[in-house]
Amino acid sequence: MGLKEDIKNKVKSILDEKFEITDISYIPKLDDSKLTFGNTGLRFKGSVLFIDMRGSTAVLNKHNKPTVAKLHMAFFHTIVKIANSLEGHVRSFNGDSRIGIDHGEILCTKVGVGGEHNRDLFWIGNSVNKSTVLGDQSKNPNHLSISSYVYSNLLDWAKFGKSKDFLGNEIDVDIWTRGTFEYNGKIENYYYTSWYWTI
Length: 199
Fold this sequence. Notes:
Layout: H1 3-16, E1 20-23, E2 40-50, H2 56-62, H3 65-85, E3 99-112, E4 119-124, H4 126-135, E5 144-147, H5 148-152, H6 156-159, E6 160-164, E7 170-174, E8 177-183, E9 186-193
């Protein structure tokens, strides 16, 4: 069988076969036995943190390749260590953007072909896409952007900071500023801040 026929047959079987979805309560890994190259997917609810090295394109253009490699290695090591320490899971690294967070239902499938180097996980859901779009909202490199859903579910320690009023009394202030952005053809609210927490 030629390459063209092989591809046509595989695409036909993908499109014709029923897609089987299993609900789970964990973040899947590439070697999860419940994921196959057939029409299978794992569905779960989760929060998506989209974060990357801001200005990575400028770094690439300014430094030589070994220096860029070292910077990325150090950055990714740091991100993974912090995520793991907070019971998070890093599953992918993406391009130059800003920090964005959303929460929702995610469908994970395995894509590619058999073999160690020709496969990956594909993450489907508005929370995945929206976290990326939110990361692109601010040109300020110190901003963190979250969806209105995430904002409405924040605990007080993540919503309020301490400030002083005109009399010098300590007061709680909302550290988030509301903004709007377009998503799926609709205008939505989101919230951003430049406050941070020391780890």
